Amino acid sequence: MTEGAGIRTGDLPDDLTAAEAGMWQAFRNGSVFDLRSGDTTVDDPHGGHPWGPERSVRARIVAWLLLDGPPALAGRVSSLKLTGVQIMDTLDLAGGTIVPYVELKGCRFEKEILLPEARFTTIRLVDCSVPRLEAARVHTEGDLHLPRCRFHNGVRLTDAHIGTDLLLNQAVVYRDRRGCSITADGMTVGQDLQAEMLESHGELSLRGAKVGVSLSLRGARLTNPYTRLALNAPQLTVERTLYLTPAGVGNPLLTSGTTPARGTRVQRFECRGGIRLDDGRFGDAVDLEQARFVLADDQEVSLRRVQTPELRFLGERPEHGRVILSGARTVNLVDRWTSWPGLGNLHMGGFTYENLVPQDAFPLARRLEWVAAATAEYNPEPYERLATVLRSSGEDEDAREVLLAKQRRRRETLPFAAKLWGYAQDWTVAYGYRPGRAAVWMAVLWAAASIAFSHASHPPVDKDAHPPWNPSLFALDLLLPVIDLGQAGQWQLRGGWQWVSTAVILLGWILATTVAAGATRLLRRG
Q1: Contact (CB, 8 A) for 391 and 428
Q2: Fewer CB in 10 Å around end: N or C, the chain?
Q3: H or E element, residue 307
């Protein structure tokens, strides 16, 4: 019988197998065509038990039904709903417009599925075994669901347009010939992209992708031992939140959008390989609660120039590799000191944040270690940013401590003479950030000089006109530069006392100069 003849009237083609005939009738009826045996081991689409011809249909017949199938029975809506069916050969729907609803559960595909530039309403593949899904520029008005499927040679969704949700929960995806597990560059998802408990072997690429609501990788495990990146998603746009957080093991669909209830066994997000989120835009937050990063020394968690209202950096400290926040911008930085890497493995040049929301104990000493870890070579910017944030939250004393730490860190880079002058400023007035020290030093020097000069021989310069001898006023006149109290020029000191008076004058000038330098710094800061 010629293919296509009689289809408009619903006649059954002559060359169909028994399984195909049953599928044909179920399509017209809109019912589920179920070929499972009832034995869970035999019915496992990912197992090694062979399925015979009684459970197999040709991909050509499936495509025939979807692209130009028979009319539905009276009072029915035609749809393709297969369970436990094996599809032979390559299913090629490239460029086609598929109107019927498509739902395949527990099915096996012998060869790849080709959907480039195809158009669907909604398509659901649940717990299916697929060699490869090729779906560049596919367009769906509704959902694309691929939960619990296994793809042995990757998934391609480049420039795909998903009208509502894309689901990849508990899917297992192995790399293709180019080393990519999922390639979805330029993809647009109208609502949520859920890939909870996803298992990815290779590079997951989402370059320039756009997600209308949230992107959830809760409990996902991304592994790529072949190249540097396990998640490659620069210029990713997510209108709400990116979740790299735990998922409940029992049923991750119930935890989607929420934190698993206390006592629930959870699986953390884990990434074995680098992450690149450079230039990403996130409307609500980037959440890294309990995330685990296993990096090689040359790999990074890169958040360069990311913009998000809230960054929740609450994962496990990576033992190797680097965390890059250069140029990133956030309003609230929610973090733990145990989440940040050590010296030389954190880069924060140009990283701006407005509020600090530390979790657990995060004392100022730890915060200064955090800044020091980001400045293997001296850089004033992270210190100044931290001081500004602390000052804006009313913690002026802590802000001064940060700026003092900045000056001490800067001192380490100076030549020897400048370093000595820095120590002098630190010991005397703490670079101007502890001005009370000036009064203490002045009082100590004044008292010591007053006691010393009370034992000094002090013949007057003019025997006929001189004020009464007062060792305290004499010492104060030497200590205070510029100001003349009318004592220093009236008396003559001889021998060692001349050296003492000279030392007092020098100490007074040093103290006055450091006070002036500190005051200038404070005024400039104000």
Answers
A1: no
A2: C
A3: strand 307-313
